[in-house]
Amino acid sequence: MNLLGISGSLRNARFGKGSKRLVDELSDLTTQQELQRYLQKQTKICAEEVLAAEQEHNTPFDQVYKYLEKNRSEQGLSNSEAGLAAGLWGALQEGIAVTHVGLSQYFPMNGEGRHLATLKEHILSADAILISGPVYFGDRGSLVQALIEFISSDTEIKDHLEGKLYGAIAVGAKRNGGQETQLIYQLIDMCNLNMLAVGNSHKTSAQYGGTIKAGDAGTAWQDDYGLETAIGTGRRIATLLKALNSSKDSVLKDACRIGVLWLQDTPEKHGLKRLQTLLKTTENPSYQFHLIDLTDQQIYRCIACDLCPTHHATATEYACVINHRNDFFVREHTALVNFDALILAAYSPVNRQQLHSVYQKFMERTRYLRRASYALGDRLTAPLIISEINSNQNLHIRMLTSLIRHHTILNHPLIAFEHRNELLNTDQFLSNITYFAQQAIALTKARLTMHDIDTDILYNPIGYHISAKRDQDFFDSSSSADLKNENNKKAANLKSKRLSS
């Protein structure tokens, strides 16, 4: 298993032997304190090289840059490389092999790409990819864009990356410097290339990936929280890789249960009827679609309790303060958390005058599931939209960015385009659904194995001091050990019941 780390900055300091040396140096670091001291030292080298070159040559920075490019050595780290190094170190701590490449070796400041056959070899040897790069106006840099275009234009690379894991780290000058929008845009692109996208781990905040705050050269090492998110992204990829590898020869004893939650439609149920017909054509004994229409059901709005969930419990126990018997979550909580994969589905017409949508109410009510140690975590998820041409709702993007916050794995959106009451891409849509189901089987086997690898999946209530105090009191008590033992026993029983070697 090999995680390929790709640094997408023109200020990369590591190439060739320097990339190998970086991996060796990271492998020698045993604690996070050692890592931070190492990043401080290495980013300082790059910062001092820039300062010395500016003082020596007294020329505009483009000339200084050319000098630095010619005189780079096998040491130093740019800010983007420092973020990537933290992510790779996180993966190394989980026992995953890592490699490193700097994109500026292949896509120079000006001119065509070079040595692309070598870059292709690196990608084809990867079981997962972790990309780090700077923010430009809330988006990626042109090096990462060149990489995505390179992947998109090569059928062999695209075929190899299908079903592989992807994560990313973004570096911006401010805490809210566009890191999250960059990660979201890249996430959508990589999902559309049939990669499976993940964010940073539950040990930080289970969001879109690593977010480093570093403006001036040599400052990335100072961002403790940012480094935590980068390390968490590497760990997240690594734990999933290990689970996928451990379970690849196992077999599910029963069908993979895929929940399809229908959340938006017209009064006459135009979209739902269309989807019911489509799903029937994909029936297979190895997986089952469970289509639930929520558009006529009551979903009470989230009232954002200070303490959420109401108490620490196993995933199958309902723990939201809203307890009205007609509420969807009260009635269907157990079914929801027992799905192996989850599709959020909707019809998106041009005329929305009579459209009924419960999507946002549904999504905000899943807050208690996220805060209950990610009760939907480690499942494959995807948006499914039957969309009239020119409906312009972009609901699939909203779904993707919300689903990843549940510590899930993202599949590319499943979108059927409708025009004048006819579907324009039926065959591709059905193929995409089948692909989702196949990936869901593999990831269900991995999830059943996951508890052997990561036994302490907990929600970290960053920013919620009342919840943090309640959680600390609980985890200091004997009740915490009892709950952990119960969870371990249930996980072991579930694995034994559903998975065979």
How does this model look, in words?
It is built from 17 helices and 17 strands. The mean pLDDT is 93. Helix 2 (32-57) packs antiparallel against helix 4. The protein has helices at 17-27, 32-57, 61-70, 79-93, 116-124, 142-152, 155-161, 179-192, 224-247, 270-280, 328-337, 359-365, 367-371, 395-403, 426-450, 465-475, 478-498; strands spanning 2-7, 97-102, 128-134, 165-172, 196-197, 210-213, 251-252, 256-262, 264-265, 287-293, 341-348, 356-357, 380-388, 409-410, 414-419, 422-423, 499-500. The longest helix is centred in the first third of the chain and has 26 residues, at 32-57. By secondary structure, it is an alpha/beta fold.
Tally of DSSP β-strands:
17
Which stretches are low in confidence, meaning pLDDT under 50 for 5 or more residues running?
none
The overall average pLDDT, rounded, is 93
What is the makeup of the main sheet? 7 strands, mixed
| Proportion of strand residues | 15-25%
Portion in helices: 40-55%
SSE-based structural type = alpha/beta
Sum up the overall morphology in one term.
globular
Number of helices: 17
* End-to-end CA span: 20 Å
Rg: 24 Å
List keywords for this structure.
501 residues, single chain, six-stranded parallel sheet
Brief rundown of the structure:
The chain contains 17 helices and 17 strands. It is of the alpha/beta class and 501 residues long. The strands form 4 sheets. Strands 8, 10, 11, 13, 14, 15 and 16 form a 7-stranded mixed beta sheet that branches.
